[in-house]
Design a protein that fits this description.
The complex is a heterodimer of chains A (711) and B (217).
Chain A: H1 2-16, E1 20-28, E2 38-41, E3 47-49, E4 55-60, E5 65-71, E6 78-83, E7 93-95, E8 111-115, H2 127-130, H3 138-142, E9 167-171, E10 174-176, E11 198-204, E12 218-224, E13 232-238, E14 241-249, E15 253-263, H4 265-270, E16 276-294, E17 298-316, E18 324-345, E19 348-365, E20 368-386, E21 391-409, E22 417-437, E23 440-451, E24 456-468, E25 473-484, H5 488-491, E26 500-513, E27 516-532, E28 545-564, E29 567-581, E30 597-607, E31 612-621, E32 625-626, E33 637-638, E34 642-655, E35 658-666, E36 677-680, E37 692-695, E38 703-710
Parallel strand pairs in A: 1-7, 9-12
Antiparallel strand pairs in A: 1-4, 2-3, 2-5, 5-6, 8-11, 9-10, 11-12, 13-14, 13-38, 14-15, 15-16, 16-17, 17-18, 18-19, 19-20, 20-21, 21-22, 22-23, 23-24, 24-25, 25-26, 26-27, 27-28, 28-29, 29-30, 30-31, 31-34, 32-33, 34-35, 35-38, 36-37
Chain B: H1 2-38, H2 42-58, H3 64-79, H4 83-103, H5 108-124, H6 126-147, H7 152-163, H8 173-189, H9 202-213
Helix pairs in contact in B: 1-2, 2-3, 3-4, 3-5, 4-5, 5-6, 5-7, 6-7, 7-8, 8-9
Classes of the chains: A mainly beta (711), B mainly alpha (217).
């Protein structure tokens, strides 16, 4: 009896552990066998990897209904219920490609992205500091990409037939009101923000996301660094100034402080300048960046910077180049940006932000005095909801309070004149991104804005499509409507203006293979409601209207080859046909900032033997239109072809055991003559001739030397 | 009486069952760990990673299967000749490390593994990622060292980090050799906690030492 019972149990025991053989085949959607796929029963050791023919085979002691899991990198995991008690034949699986693969389709029309993290990007944040002629200035380096114009006397970004104010800079999603330093006329401005602040950049020359508003032509989206990696102190000694910075790193926080002083007087003393400087540009500034990790996945970032700079020079009067005015400029700028980002769970990311700008330009022209002050405050919140691998929704809102005060104290007037602008732009957007298949993606959304000053609404729909034509290539399309409030100088005088409007149509093809990139993009832009008035010299504010219009169409080409180890180069070429009738233009004409052809070649070579990085940048642009009063056709004259070869090198070494970079940069090595345009006097002299003056850079070349030491 | 016997027998069988589970976990892990030493190709590592992943899914309170699954994927990133796969392998490895750290946040070896992953990231794009990720790797290794100053892999990877940093940035063989040397000493005296504890690195460390630092009398 006992024996019987024991036998029974042994039978039961072995019965429990009876093995079933499981086999089958795994293929992809093209019926190609997949090797190395993990096929197994959930929460058990029982499983196997598929072999070279896609076949798998294993034994299991499980019984009843079990979940079978099929998983492989780059493919969507399959889970299937299998009843092990019924007879089982071959269990075959067809795996579908996952849409968040690195080679999956991405929306690229209109944009150049720079990132160290993402793989499929054309540009790297490091490019900003290593590109010759760029002098570590973000806008200058972006200017080597197609779609931008070389406007040497401004130094700002002019994108695809758009004026400089039509390009908007965003830091962590927040609008930057004054992205450039203030300068006296004909002296190019530099971007206010150091490239070392950012881990990612997205330059979009059109068709950008509904997340970004108040930009007619282009968006430059900058993403700030996370926690600073280490505690470090650095000093810089430059031909134009001095700087010091310290970064302290704690476990979950970091703080960086920096201060700098610059003065071009010694340099101008050595190298003769065309301009009649009374006091060379100089100033000081400081910045603070604080980062704190919160909770599991939260991050608080606070950044603030302050700068004060001044300069003065004798400048020929606009109305009469023979006469000179003393122009004095003092600029004060404070920028604060604070954001809080939290990854609430795998599907929800929340972003909140606040930014404040205070900018004062104190300008004196002879005995006239103009004081312009901006006080802007922005609140922003948005939510990214990753519903599934294929479907994402992003939505948010933004309040942008803008105050602009302008004070004129003209010698010729009895009382000072004051104009004030108080505007609140409220906006909201919603946008979704759908990956319909592994090869086809769509992004569509809309933005709505209301301005209290204009008392007007706008609704701006956007759409982008991308289709993968091969393993390494894709075609993208983008369309969208873009609005922007007129510039403050017009708005402050006139309540009756409306939003300026542009429509973008973009078609793009991109091929990326073995660290080589080829891109071609064709576009058409239609401008409406641009600000227009009668005369440049005597505008009547009441006559400001939105009757301006324009268009731009062209082709941008880009080639980058990064496959040769230490040698890296890119070539940008852009052809543009653009005309507009805006501001004081009496007829449709190609604006003064547009060159029909722009070609840029950037070359970089790191030579490990001498620890030196060498860079060369060559730019050639066809002539730009300028106004000639003796020519009956408006803006029909063209300047000479612009060409410039810039050179730089960075030598990495040690000074007293401290890591040191010696950097030298020279613009216009060949000494070509750069003429950006001409300025004519308002009235002809006795002989009926108009006095004119060529607009040229302050000096043929600019030489920069700097030593940067980490302690 | 019969009831009692029935009960005892049942308890015995159940006991066999669980005892076998635990010992089979160890046995299977040891077996796979042995095959890990033999793995050379992406395919070898992929199959092993799959094995470890299955075990990890079944044994949700063990960090070793996750550790080895991640280590396999990091190795795949090093050995594959398909550049566009490298990042994907590391992303997969990162997911395992993140999970393992949730189970066992104070394991020195997991920080070493994180540093190795960062070194894998550098290898993909040295110019663009070198600065950021070598600092990140350094930070992880510092944490690993704080937890267990006798972990030899800490010094081996610190050595690699320094070796691959350009001389002008304070790196190169001369600066790396003392670290490889310390690692050799630590590898000699290293006592694994149990049979599943990581043991890799000693030979490669010796190889780097011989190649760059020469024999010392």
């Amino acid at each position: 009896m006992k024996l019987l019972l024991l036998l029974f149990f042994i039978a039961l025991y072995s019965g429990l552990y009876a093995q079933i053989s499981i086999k089958g085949k795994v293929t992809d959607s093209n019926n190609e066998p997949l090797t190395g796929v993990n096929v197994y029963f959930k929460s058990s050791y029982d499983g196997a990897s598929s072999d070279e023919t896609g076949k798998y085979h294993f034994k299991t002691e499980l019984s009843g209904k079990q979940t079978m899991v099929v998983s492989f990198i780059g493919f969507k995991t399959i889970e299937q219920l299998i009843d092990l008690d019924t007879a089982i034949g071959s269990i075959d699986f067809i795996m579908r490609k996952s849409s968040n693969r690195l080679d999956a389709v991405v929306i690229t029309a209109g944009s150049f992205e720079a990132s160290d993290e993402k793989k499929a990007v054309i540009f790297k944040p490091l490019d900003i500091v290593t590109t010759a002629g760029g002098l570590a200035d973000i806008p200058s380096v972006i200017n080597t990409l197609p779609g931008t114009q070389t406007v040497g006397e401004e130094g700002k970004l002019f994108v695809r037939g758009g004026d400089s104010y039509e390009t908007r800079t965003f830091i962590d999603g927040m609008i930057v009101d004054e992205p450039y330093g203030s300068t006296v006329p004909d002296v190019p401005a530099r971007g206010r923000f150091s490239p070392f602040l950012f881990k990612g950049m997205l330059f979009s020359s059109g068709g950008y996301s509904a997340e970004y508003g108040q930009a007619l032509s282009s968006a430059l989206v900058l993403e700030t660094n996370d926690l600073a990696p280490e505690t470090v102190t650095s000093l810089s000694l430059m031909s134009v100034g001095l700087g010091a910075a310290h970064t302290q790193r704690w476990d979950r926080a970091s703080l960086s402080l920096s201060t700098d002083y610059f003065n071009l007087a010694p340099y101008f003393g050595l190298i003769k300048q065309q301009f009649d400087w009374q006091s060379a540009p100089g100033g000081f500034g400081g910045s603070m960046a604080f980062r704190q990790k919160t909770g599991k996945n939260g991050m608080v970032k606070i950044y603030s910077q302050y700068g004060k700079e001044s300069s003065s020079l004798l400048y020929p009067a606009y109305t009469d180049p023979a006469k000179e005015h003393l122009v004095q400029l003092v600029n004060d700028n404070l920028y604060v940006n604070a954001t809080y980002r939290d990854i609430m769970n795998e599907k929800l990311i929340s972003n909140a932000g606040i930014s404040y700008t205070n900018n004062t330009d104190d300008i004196k022209i002879s005995s006239d005095h103009i004081l312009e002050e901006i006080n802007n405050l922005e609140f922003r919140y948005n939510l990214n909801w990753l519903i599934s691998e294929e479907f994402k929704i992003k939505f948010g809102g933004d309040l942008w309070g803008r105050k602009f005060n302008q004070k004129f104290d003209f010698n010729s007037f009895e009382n000072p004149v004051q104009n004030d602008l108080n505007d609140l732009i409220s906006s909201g957007f919603i946008e979704s991104e759908v990956k319909l298949t592994h090869t086809f993606a769509a992004r569509f959304g809309s933005r709505v804005e209301y301005s209290t000053w204009l008392e007007r609404w706008n609704i701006a729909p956007r759409l982008s499509l991308a289709y993968k034509t091969g393993k390494n290539s894709q075609v993208s399309l983008a369309w969208g409507t873009f609005y922007q409030s007129p510039e403050n100088t017009y708005l402050v005088h006139n309540h009756n203006l409306r939003f300026e409007k542009a429509a973008h149509y973009i078609l793009n093809y991109q091929l990326m293979k073995n660290k080589k990139t080829f891109r071609i993009e064709a576009y058409f832009k239609d401008y409406k409601n641009l600000v227009k008035y009668d005369s440049l010299y005597l505008p009547v504010p009441e006559s400001y209207n939105n009757k301006g219009k324009g268009y731009a169409k062209g082709i941008d080409l880009f080639w980058r080859d990064n496959s040769n180890g230490n040698i890296d180069y890119w070539i940008s070429y852009a052809y543009i046909d653009s005309r507009r009738e805006y501001k004081d233009y009496p007829v449709m004409a190609t604006p003064t900032f547009v060159s029909e052809h722009n070609l840029t070649v950037v070359f970089k070579n790191y030579v490990p033997k001498i620890s030196t990085q060498i860079g060369l940048t060559y730019k050639i642009a066809s002539g730009r239109p300028y106004y000639n009063p003796t020519n009956p056709n408006f803006l029909a004259d063209r300047t000479k072809i612009y060409n410039d070869l810039s050179f730089n090198f960075s030598y990495l070494t040690h000074l007293w055991d401290h890591f040191t970079i010696v950097h030298c940069s020279v613009s216009n090595v060949l000494g070509s003559d750069h003429t950006f345009g001409y300025r004519f006097s308002l009235n002809p002299d006795e002989q009926g001739e108009y006095d004119s003056m060529a607009i040229k850079p302050g000096a043929k070349r600019f030489l920069f030397l700097g030593i940067f030491v980490s302690i | 009486m019969k009831n009692l016997m029935f009960f005892l027998l049942f308890a015995f069988i159940v006991n066999i069952g669980t005892a076998q589970d635990e010992s089979s976990y160890m046995m299977i892990m040891v077996k796979h760990k042995k095959s890990f030493r033999m793995a050379r190709t992406v395919q070898d590592f992929q199959n092993l990673a799959n094995n470890f992943e299955r075990i990890a899914n079944a044994e949700s309170d063990q960090w070793h299967p996750l550790y080895y699954a991640a280590l396999c994927y990091i190795n795949m990133s090093f050995v594959t000749d398909q550049n566009d796969q490298k990042d994907a392998f590391l992303d997969k490895a990162q997911a395992f490390i993140d999970k393992a750290l949730l189970i066992y946040p104070d394991e020195s070896e997991l920080f070493v593994l994180q540093a190795l992953l960062y070194q894998g990231k550098i290898q993909i794009d040295p110019a663009g990622r070198g600065m950021t990720y070598s600092a990140k790797a350094d930070e992880e290794l510092k944490m690993a060292k704080d937890i267990n100053p006798d972990n030899p892999r800490v010094y081996y990877l610190l050595g690699l980090n320094v070796l691959h940093t350009p001389e002008s940035f304070g790196g190169g063989p001369a600066a790396a050799c003392p670290l490889f040397e310390t690692a050799i000493e630590k590898f000699k005296t290293y006592l694994p906690e149990n049979v599943l504890s990581p043991t890799w690195g000693g030979e490669r460390n010796q190889m780097f030492y011989t190649k760059y630092c020469g024999e010392k009398e």
